[in-house]
């Protein structure tokens, strides 16, 4: 620059100052979103074996996991009995007096009649001045195909380490009973037997903490409570798990069940805990020691130890006087408020929106008609998010048929793919906002989104109160931001960013819920968390959209969409099939005992070239001979060598006739080996039917207990882990004609000589309808 050249100030600083509020908003939102997602998905570091005696140590607890989960130990197996004996010895070594309760658990559900003989183990620490009892529960049986390192060896190990830690400190005020339930995987049989035996005690003097798993990694989630949760949730304050009253609202409407379900239905209250990360390993051979996360175990143990201590010092009867609450965790904090505030807060959000909108209209910052037009289009990005999720999964399973083997809809490493789908949804919301900004202002977009948030806050407050907090706080922030923005002059750099204030609480509330939903629902149902992503992004983009038009808009959004697609493709490609991440397939060996014909059958779950040598592309129904294989209607089948396998046997012991009915006593068992289940079906299409069944003194009065079943087998009964001598059943049969029965024997694994060599390491059994043998025979009584 020469001395004669005039100095001209750079245009960059004013431009930067104008963009600074928007950049600050993005930085705050990003920081909150990242922090809450990390807090939702990352468990704490495990403590070493030399941790203080009163603390929970994952290193100490994991020694129990290694002892318990070296092999599958389903109910009725030799390995199961070995685990039982180890638990009794360890509880005795820890200074308790364990008792084994041998009894029969019976499921009297309308659509499922079942029973099993179980061995529950319980041990009690006596309180110094008990007002009631804390019942801490984990099941010690595993699924049939997996060692159950996480489900539920983590829960069992957490209970044992909790016993040790509690005994290292002062005696508790209240009694603490540790229940190691049996037969959970067979239909919650241990919990049912415990409840039927009167072991639950008075409902108003017992609080239950149940430990389970539906994955092998991630944070502990407190996903379900009983009644009066406002008096229970504070017990989580010393070590806060991932929790939300939304999960409570969702889970109680689902058909899913754990041992806690039995206790809740019996009138008890309490809390249910599980970790749900990497559900691809759940109920498979890969729920093993190699995939057992010590960090997840630490989180589970620290959470339950802290909650047990809190409740062991509480006034238990006072819990019954509590009310339900809204609660949620936020990056290690536990936030809660009484359920009675839900409706008033929803009303406040509606009033705040009305006031902010009135003020903004008076200031001529927004136009009512324009806000209405934009609000009418808000469902567009939400529906687009659903389409992205649905289409994404269809494309994944088209290019990767092995993905169909993941029963819970999530592959081993879904995070990168989920992030790519979220990017695509964010791009879709950006396009929606950019198109609307051509005729509408940023404040009008923000006001329209706030209208939807407020409506959702009110609707959920009425229908699902525990979910209302997700919308009421962003709605209030959006209304406050609208009023503040309307007050500023039109040329203020803070005006548009302030109108997007709803995104700040949205980052802390909606983003971790989306992450939780991805874990809980998997990529198969990615549409649900992606809709949440769209709700979060919608208020955030309003101040920034509209700066690009025409070709630049198309170019930049195309580039962003391609980035999202590339991330999805990279995620799917990265999640390849290998020895640690095998393809999961369905394959069963079935024998029609009446015709002495064997077949291989597959439900169609999963895909691998190895499977093709057993089943072809053709399908056929199999429910006629194997009624338990009812879904899908048609199965892939292939010829199989006929090899001896445990077969069912039914003998009529006595018949006593009455007017229009008869009482038939039969014994069912298996010959030729040990079976895991005996399944009895009755033909309800004929003239006779089963009115009720008595097993081990328990009567199950259910005629045609499968009314929605297609075909002839409208009644059934299952006995899990039957004794070698068989099971005696008393059937009350309505009608004088013959009753056609079909008895199936299920045994684990395949008979020797059936498979063509060893199964490769890149293949494992899927979590459903895989890796077992069925032999079926017809009988008439």
Automatic annotation (TrEMBL):
Domain Peptidase M28 intervals: 120-307
Keywords assigned by UniProt, alphabetized: Glycoprotein, Membrane, Transmembrane, Transmembrane helix, Vacuole
Cross-referenced Gene3D superfamilies: Zn peptidases
Its membrane topology: Multi-pass membrane protein
Main location: membrane
Compartment list: Vacuole membrane
Pfam family, one: Peptidase_M28
Sequence intervals crossing the membrane: 341-361, 373-395, 415-433, 445-464, 470-486, 498-518, 524-546, 553-573
Claim: Transmembrane is one of the keywords in the record: yes
InterPro entries: M28_fam, Peptidase_M28
Family: Belongs to the peptidase M28 family.
Functional note: May be involved in vacuolar sorting and osmoregulation.
Protein name as it appears in the record: Vacuolar membrane protease
Protein's organism: Streptomyces doebereineriae
């Amino acid at each position: 620059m020469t001395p004669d050249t005039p100095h001209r100030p750079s245009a960059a600083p004013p431009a930067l100052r104008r963009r600074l509020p928007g950049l600050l908003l993005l930085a705050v939102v990003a920081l909150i979103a990242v922090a809450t997602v990390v807090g939702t998905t990352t468990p704490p570091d495990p403590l070493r074996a030399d941790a203080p005696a009163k603390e929970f140590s994952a290193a100490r607890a994991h020694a129990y996991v290694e002892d318990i989960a070296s092999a599958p130990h389903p109910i009725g197996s030799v390995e199961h009995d070995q685990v039982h004996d180890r638990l009794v010895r360890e509880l005795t070594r820890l200074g308790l007096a364990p008792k084994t309760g041998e009894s029969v658990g019976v499921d009297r559900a309308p659509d499922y009649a079942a029973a099993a003989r179980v061995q529950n183990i319980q041990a009690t620490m006596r309180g110094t001045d008990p007002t009631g009892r804390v019942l801490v529960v984990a099941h010690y049986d595993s699924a049939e195909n997996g060692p159950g390192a996480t489900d539920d060896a983590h829960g069992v190990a957490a209970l044992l380490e909790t016993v040790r830690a509690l005994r290292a400190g002062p005696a508790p005020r209240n009694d603490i009973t540790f229940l190691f339930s049996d037969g959970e995987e067979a239909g919650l049989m241990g919990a049912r037997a415990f409840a039927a035996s009167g072991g639950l005690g008075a409902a108003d003097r017992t609080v239950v903490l149940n430990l389970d798993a539906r994955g092998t990694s991630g944070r502990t989630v407190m996903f379900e409570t009983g009644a009066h949760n406002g008096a229970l949730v504070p017990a989580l304050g010393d070590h806060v798990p991932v929790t939300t009253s939304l999960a409570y609202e969702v889970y109680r409407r689902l058909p899913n069940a754990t041992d806690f379900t039995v206790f809740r239905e019996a009138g008890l209250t309490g809390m249910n805990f599980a970790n749900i990360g990497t559900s691809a390993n759940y109920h498979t051979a890969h729920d093993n020691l190699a995939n057992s996360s010590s960090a997840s175990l630490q989180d589970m143990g620290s959470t339950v130890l802290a909650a047990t201590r809190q409740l062991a010092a509480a006034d238990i009867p006072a819990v019954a006087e509590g009310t339900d609450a809204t609660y949620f965790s936020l990056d290690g904090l536990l936030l809660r408020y009484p359920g009675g505030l839900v409706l008033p807060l929803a009303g406040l959000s509606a009033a705040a929106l009305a006031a902010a909108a009135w003020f903004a209209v008076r200031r001529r910052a927004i136009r009512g008609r324009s806000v209405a037009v934009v609000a009418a289009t808000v469902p567009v990005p939400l529906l687009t998010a659903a389409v992205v999720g649905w289409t994404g999964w269809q494309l994944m399973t088209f290019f990767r048929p092995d993905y169909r083997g993941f029963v819970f809809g999530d592959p081993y490493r879904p995070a990168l793919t989920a992030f790519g789908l979220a990017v695509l949804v964010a791009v879709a919301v950006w396009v929606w906002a950019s198109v609307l900004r051509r005729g509408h202002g940023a404040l009008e977009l923000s006001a329209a989104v706030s209208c939807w948030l407020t409506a959702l806050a009110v609707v959920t407050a009425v229908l699902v109160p525990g979910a209302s907090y997700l919308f009421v706080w962003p709605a209030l922030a959006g209304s406050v931001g609208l009023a503040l923005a309307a007050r500023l002059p039109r040329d203020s750099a803070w005006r548009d960013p302030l109108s997007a204030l709803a995104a700040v609480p949205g980052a802390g509330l909606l983003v971790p819920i989306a992450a939780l939903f991805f874990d809980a629902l998997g990529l198969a149902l990615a549409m649900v968390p992606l809709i949440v992503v769209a709700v979060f992004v919608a208020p955030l983009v309003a101040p920034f959209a509209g700066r690009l038009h025409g070709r630049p808009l198309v170019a930049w959004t195309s580039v962003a969409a391609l980035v999202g697609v590339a991330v999805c493709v990279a995620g799917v490609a990265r999640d390849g099939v290998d020895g640690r991440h095998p393809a999961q397939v369905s394959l069963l060996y079935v024998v029609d005992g009446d015709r002495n014909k064997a077949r291989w059958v597959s439900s169609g779950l999963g895909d691998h070239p190895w499977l093709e040598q057993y089943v072809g592309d053709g399908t056929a129904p199999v429910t006629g001979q194997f009624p338990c294989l009812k879904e899908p209607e048609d199965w892939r089948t292939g010829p199989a060598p006929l090899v001896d396998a445990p077969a069912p046997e039914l003998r009529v012991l006595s018949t006593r006739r009455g007017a229009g009915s008869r009482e038939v006593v039969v014994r069912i068992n298996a010959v030729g080996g040990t079976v895991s289940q005996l399944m009895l079906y009755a033909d309800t299409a004929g003239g006779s039917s089963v009115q009720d069944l008595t097993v081990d003194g328990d009567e199950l009065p259910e005629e045609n207990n499968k009314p929605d079943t297609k075909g002839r087998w409208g009644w059934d009964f299952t006995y899990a882990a039957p004794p070698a001598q068989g099971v005696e059943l008393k059937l009350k049969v309505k009608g004088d004609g013959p009753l056609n029965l079909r008895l199936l024997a299920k045994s684990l694994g395949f008979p020797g000589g059936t498979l063509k060599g060893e199964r490769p390491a890149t293949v494992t059994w899927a979590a459903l309808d895989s890796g077992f043998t069925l032999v079926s025979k017809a009988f008439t009584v």
